[in-house]
Each structure stands twice: as structure tokens, then as C-alpha cells.
Amino acid sequence: MTESVLTLDQVRAMAADLRLDRFNDAQLEELTRATNAARARRAKLGIERLSLADEPAHVFRLDDEEPV
Q1: What gap in Å lies between CA 7 and CA 21, rounded to an integer?
Q2: In sequence order, what are the residues at sequence separation of 6 or more whose Cβ sits closer than 8 angstroms to the Cβ of residue 32?
């Protein structure tokens, strides 16, 4: 699944929909680059064959003891 690369105008419209209309052009360009990079990484993951059980589990400990 290949997604098209977003243009600055598309990101500007998305930002306006999210009420992020105070971004200047430099910030919108940075958001465009970051969004396109994230989409490209996600497209390479092959997530269509993953299930909920494949979600990584993050375990946090609240005590100072060594893990067993």
C-alpha cells in the first residue's frame, strides 16, 4: 500500500481542519516533511498482516527492586 506524498497545500488544509492555523510556512514545511517520512515508514512495516496480539507490551515497574 503506497500512499501519495503530501504537498504543502494539503498539509496546510489538514492543519486548518485541526485548527492549527497559527503555523507559519516554515513550521508547515517541517510538518510536511515529518508527515511524509512517517507515512513512508509506516508503509514499509507491512501492518496489514499484524493483529492486536502483535502489539508490543510495555511493562513498567513502580518499585526499586531488581526484576526477577
Answers
A1: 16
A2: 6, 7, 8, 11
Report how far Cα 28 is from the mean position of its chain's Cα atoms.
15
Distance CA 49, CA 18 (A): 31
CA distance 25 to 17: 16
21-55: pLDDT as tens digits: 899 999 999 999 999 999 998 888 877 787 877 77
Cα gap 16→10, rounded to integer Å: 10
Scan for cell 501492518, then name that residue. Answer: 47
Task: Give the pTM.
Answer: 0.62
